[in-house]
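Worked problem 6 (solution included).
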Amino acid sequence: MGLSTHVLDTMHGCPAAGMTVALYRTDGEQASLVKKLQLNADGRNPDGPLFDNASLKVGTYRLVFDVAGYFKARGVQLPEPSFLNKVSLDFGVADASAHYHVPLLVSPWSYSTYRGS
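Solution. The predicted structure is:
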């Protein structure tokens, strides 16, 4: 399956439909944008995996989730500046033949992630 992500809005108890997500390849402090997308109604990439197994390479990556933009679009009154603006998750892929699923559970004030299945 390659690399996938899924975002759940824990404030409203639903998928984070419409959230903007950017995927980067990283090399030390350098980051190169691979793709930018908006999550579908299920809180997932509408085009399926971010990378399939043939395209996923061993290395380091970054997912950037526009948390403040998403909650503002939902009408949530956030302070200026917001507590969470963009959430960046840096992670490594050691086995390109494995499935790497990176879920995000998020509210305007907290988030958690893990390597899913």
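Discussion: Residues 3-108 form a domain with the Immunoglobulin-like fold (CATH 2.60.40.180).
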